[in-house]
Amino acid sequence: MPSGMGGLVRYFDEYKSKIKFKPGHIIVLCVVVIVIMLFLYSYGSKLLGLG
Predict the structure, then answer these.
(1) Does 5 score more than 60 pLDDT?
(2) 34-46 burial code (b ≥16 CB/10 A, e <16)
(3) CA gap 31, 20 in Å, rounded
(4) Which residues are CB-contacts of 16 (< 8 A; sequence separation ≥ 6)?
(5) Which helix (H) or strand (E) holds 15?
(6) Which of 5, 13, 39, 45 is in Cβ range 3.0-4.6 Å of 50 for a Cys bridge?
(7) CA-derived radius of gyration, the chain
């Protein structure tokens, strides 16, 4: 056996993810999370009855 790899096994060459996201979907998700956070910072205490 050739010892060029030094005993390391490269698993990532064979791995294919079943879940794939387009970059546009990630950007939209981030914007939605930011909008929800801004809404909760502004109106969250009133909605939850904390203030």
Answers:
(1) no
(2) eeeeeeeeeeeee
(3) 19
(4) none
(5) none
(6) 45
(7) 23
